[in-house]
Every structure is written in C-alpha cells, then in structure tokens.
C-alpha cells in the first residue's frame, strides 16, 4: 500500500458519516444529529473533525430524505471543497451505510475515476473523536483491511433477570466498539452487498468485516469519543465543550552532523543531497526538535527519556515513530496540538522547494491540518558548524491546549 505520509501517493480516503437516523431517544423534538451542543449542531461538530484531518480527502454525509432542510442549516456555514453533496440513506443504519458506499462507487464509475481506496464509517452522534484516534485507525489500514477503535470493559458486568442479578459475566477480553471504523473500500462494499443479498443484519460494520473473513485490527479508542444517545448525554456533551483549556508552549532544539550519503531526512521526507545526517536513529533533526517541543509543552521529559539513544532497538529507526509517540501522549491527556513552528538552520540543501512537502508530512504524522504547521529555513551566514556545512540544526515551538483541570 502507498506511503500514507506522502500526500501525492497515499491512498484516497473518504469519511462517510451516517446521519440518517431519527435520533428519537435523546428527546428534544429534533433528530439528535441536528440538535445543538455548544451553539452548533452535533453534525457540524462531527463533520468538522474529519475536515480537520490532513489525510481525509473527502467527507460525505448520509441523510434521510426528509432531512435535507436541517442538513443544509447545520452545514451552511461550513465551507470546504472536501465536503461533498449529501447521500440519501435508508430506513436502517446498515442500509444507509451500503447506500453511501454504493453512491461513492457509482460516482467514481460515472466520472471515469477510481473509487476511494479507504473509507472511514462514522456515527454522526460522536462529535468528540480526537484527531490522534483518527490517525490510529488510518494507520492500521496500512497493515490490514479493517480497523476498529475499542475501549476495554472495566466495569463488572451483570446479567439482568427480571430486575434481579442472575450472574456475573466475565469481562476478560471484552471491548467496547467505537467509530470511526476504517476499511479498505472494495472489501467493505463487497461485504455490504453480500449482507444485502443474504438479508442478514449486524450491529456494526466491523461485524460485517468479521463475517466476510476480513481480519479486523483493534486500535485504542478514546473515552472522549462518546456517542450521544440520551438527554443525559447532551448534558455531558455540553460539559465537555465547556471544559476550560489552557494553552501551553514548548520548545525543542536538535543538531546532527553531516557525513557520507546521498540525501538528508528532514520532517519525514528524504531530500537529495551529497551528504546525509548521522545519528543513532535516522537523525531527522526536524522531527526530533518538534518531538521535544511537544513533550516540553506537556511536561513529559524529552525524546531521550523515552527513546534511549544507546538502545539498539532504535538504531536506524524512523523518527516519525518518536513524534507519533509524543502526539499520543498529548491525546492521552485529552489535549490538542494547535500549532507547530519549525525552523531549519543549514547552508545546504535548500529547504524552500520542499517546504510544502515537509508541512504535509509533519501534519500527517501529527494528525493535524497542514495550515497548523509552519516550516521556515535560514542560514547562519556561513558562521559556525552549520555555516561550514558540518551539520544541520533545527528548533521548534509547539502550542498545545490541555484541559485546565488537569494536575
């Protein structure tokens, strides 16, 4: 499968948001996906989180035929060329997903183009999915045909027998499934078509994949990715959006010497050069500086504290693994990376022609939009080790928002 960090060769990814349900259990006289949380419809929040992700090429929403007016009202001010026209769904969720997949396939045939390579199928009533969780689902699709975000069941389970507890159910190995669930497009479309032909129903798309014999990779979900179902859930959702955030800024600096080679690795991409950076890992000074900046913002040490430079396990390791780990640590704290600012110091190679490729690569690793990444370069007027062409340095600043009630 193509490299997911390369914006030109990575698979085409579509997010399919299912919003055709009536949502009656939540009350309020309006389908829950169109009710407001923090002043905006739930659907608006859900669509925006996918538009925010750098690796999502298009977002499509499956709606009920009689929901056109509330759909337009919910998304009227959300302007993006990556938001396509709504797709009319069916009476049940499974049918709505299939119709959404069929529409994507038919549109590709009509346009003479290939259908999507990958699809994320998401419930509209989950408006809090963290960007790093989306990234985990997408990354899992590089190694398998299906990915399912889950959380372990930590509460004791009891079986209800007419209002009395009849037994305790072992919870070992039990997981709570969440969305978005990710799939290779052709495989999940085939699974849905088979289910329609055989007239059987399932509880979610991952079960369809399982019944089709597709291995489903489990990835870590998030407690924040709650599904709004009841009126109490709306109260909780308001509290989550009202949760005060504090802004933290961290800085990072790294340097590596230059030696024999045919290219330097910077920001996760290889730039042709008559030398290469030397180090225990791949010596990517750009990603090392950004990693330290993020760790500094959350007060979690530095890159060397988590990945010992003397550990043979990291010899020659790709530095995107270090940065992805720092991003994961932000997510574990319910934090959000707001902005990354990177400055590369070198005489050669010239960074300008590669600036956007660097930004796209860093954004993909960090699961943030490209416009949240700044890459600059400067020389030192031939002064010092960088001026003499002996090495390359990088400095970075990371702006991170964390819940203010964290210790």
Q: Could you describe the 3D structure shown?
A:
With 407 residues, the protein is an alpha/beta fold. It has 2 domains: 13-242, Spore Coat Polysaccharide Biosynthesis Protein SpsA, Chain A; 245-403, 2-C-methyl-D-erythritol 2,4-cyclodiphosphate synthase (60s Ribosomal Protein L30, Chain: A). The protein contains 12 helices and 19 strands. The protein has helices at residues 42-51, 68-75, 93-111, 131-140, 185-198, 205-211, 231-242, 285-297, 303-306, 320-332, 355-366, 384-387; strands at residues 13-19, 36-37, 40-41, 58-63, 87-88, 118-123, 146-152, 157-161, 164-169, 175-177, 181-184, 216-220, 245-260, 263-266, 269-272, 275-277, 336-345, 373-378, 391-403. Strands 1, 4, 5, 6, 7, 10, 11 and 12 form an 8-stranded mixed β-sheet that branches. A 5-stranded mixed β-sheet has the order 16-13-19-17-18. Strand 17 (336-345), helix 11 and strand 18 (373-378) form a beta-alpha-beta unit. The longest helix is centred in the first third of the chain and has 19 residues, at 93-111. Mean pLDDT is 90; it is low at 1-7.
Output the keywords.
407 residues, alpha/beta, Spore Coat Polysaccharide Biosynthesis Protein SpsA, Chain A, 60s Ribosomal Protein L30, Chain: A, 2 domains, eight-stranded mixed sheet, five-stranded mixed sheet, 12 helices, 31% helix, globular, disordered N terminus
